[in-house]
Amino acid sequence: MLQVREFLLKLCLCPGLSPISRWRLWKTAEKERSFNNISLLIERSGISIRAQNVLLNKWESFELQEKVQLNMKQSYITIVDNEYPQQLSEIFCPPLVLFYRGDISLLNTQCLAIVGARQMTSYGSATLKGLLPVVVKRGITIVSGLAAGVDGLSHQITLERRGKTIGVVGCGLDQVYPRNHQALQEAVAQKGLVISEYGLGEAPVAFHFPERNRIIAGLAETILVVEAKKRSGSLITAKIAYTIYT
Fold first, then answer.
1. How far apart are CA 38 and CA 51, in angstroms?
2. pTM (2 decimals)?
3. Which residues of the chain have pLDDT under 70?
4. How many Cβ atoms from other residues are within 10 Å of residue 114's Cβ?
């Protein structure tokens, strides 16, 4: 098991690989029961030429070895661990590793995901303030992305009501986005759970957020969208959830 967990951590942290490439490599390694033969994995996984070159250039690099050693110091679970939620493992390209701060048992509770506009109106705010206390009272865990607007208010209301909440971030757990949510992210970590598939030092770059959205959708049985624009990450999350559950 130790060898498998270390392989998954290294695969997660290898720079330049997409979630799809990581997933294909993992499934090939699992099938072949081979976690050291990179040539074999490349040959049989069907990853792109670009991904093959990344793996050949990065897998044994000092840079990757340092990243692995650094991230082994923080708490994490892998897709083969008992704590990993079954529901999340069934989505398309589930995260192989989740780094976390807080109560990891919340991953296996009944969850409602809330996503929506960063520039929320008074109507959106009033809707959340009216609806969420009822949901929280029923013991349902609120999952959101710790972003500005709807996300942040969802976490705030849940914490004020002493409810359970999970923040899924698109950067390393030592980073905060937006920056003015540092106190909120710390509160969620202390009283709930903050998770990420990105290692320490990883910045909140744009393409991380659609990847993060699949985790939000995969954790929750239901998704609530509040004031989303037609072209928004919130609707991407809703579409992912529709794909998962239909």
1. 12
2. 0.91
3. 1-2, 228-246
4. 30
